[in-house]
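Suppose a colleague, Dr. K., hands you the sequence of a protein chain of 467 amino acids and asks what its three-dimensional shape might be. Before reaching for any lab equipment, you can write down a predicted structure in token form. Begin with the sequence itself:
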Amino acid sequence: MEQNFDFIVLGGGSAGYAAARTIHEHGGSVALVDGAEELGGLCILRGCMPSKTLIYSAEMLHLAQKGNIFGFVGEKPQANIKAMHARKKEVIAEFADYRKEQLEDGRFSLFRSYGQFVDAQSVQLSDGTILRSSKILISTGSKVKVPNLPGLSGVNYKTSDDVLDLEAVPSECVVLGGGVVACELAQFLSRVGSRVTLLQRSPHLLKEFPREASRTLENAFELEGLELQLGVTFKGFSQIGKECIEVTYEHQGQEKRIQTSFLFLALGREPATCSLKLDHAGVNLSPTGHVITNSFQQTSCPDIYAAGDCAGPHEIVHIAIKQGETAALHAMQKKVRPMQYDYLLSVVFTDPQLAVVGLNPSELNNRKIDFLSASFPFDDHGKSILMDAKHGYVAVHADKKTGVVLGAECVSKDAGELIHSLSVAVSLKATVHDLLNADWYHPTLSEIWTYPLEDLAEEIILPDQKK
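The predicted structure, expressed as tokens, is then:
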């Protein structure tokens, strides 16, 4: 059996749905192929929404346990992990049901199957059906990465999927990794009652973020009681009976061993493309396994596109959506801007949260852009002090001649909300002087941006300001 379409989408997550919707809106016929047990994609089912629901519950618990700071007393609350889990399921069910309805509402031909390339214009489904199209999008997402470490594949490790489905809190756990998922869920586990040891190969947490940001988070974690061992080298993993795993590693020149009943593997994710037979279509992969694309999301085969986690370079939902839309519009020969990441916005939902937008000092230096930076700490800011949210800082990076805001950092309570005012500034190429013309209400967390902005405005004198 063969069927022909204007566009074939492999994967119904954020990127795939965005592309399918866009093609349909421009009059094209779409075959959407998704063989997952549940429809919805990583973000809704096992990523953003469930993790942030649980993280927020743990944050409320943490605040309640600090009642003496805010002037009230009472029995110290404890985590009810089953109740948290039940609420998480209720929350994500609404989003999952809505996405399922969108995928099944008749706009697309939905095939609940997996597909493999036969050639650059043909995909074979699990039941033998052949789908043909001159344009195809790969948006199959990512999966948990299991590095080739001695003995790791032979032990009963847990993944983020297991942590998000917990119905009992482990008394202790060892977390492997120091990236976004590792940090967010390590703090969650600690706050609901587990004794957490985090082992990270890099000398810093969140190595892709500015050093001051990661240092702030490391200090906050240690104050909460998480044990951090950074810069380790993993030597081996062994299963001791059904319940115990031993990790052997080197730290600061010494070989160490730690035993745990709950080993949380959080050493990253990798593209889920190995079953697609991409070689049949002439699609090339990078050394990391990502599908190589240009700025319009075209692969090495120009009529095949890729978007989302399987393509990178940033595994973020709003980027996946934009990539999917860009690919669809380009395939339909519509006017569309190429993807570019100079305005990239990233948030880590730890406490304090980390948020960055635009270009950081390292990238600005690499591009030989003449810039100035200014920062201000939250422990000297009125609203954050009264909230007992004193960890962190804000920083702004601006062009030295024009004052145009090129990037910003925020590490703080609700940094993911605060960063958006600077995200607007970066994307609109506003200057520090422009931002100071706006009202910044007192007392708010947001007004902290005025301090580095004022410092920069005093240093950057525009031509019309000169006497």
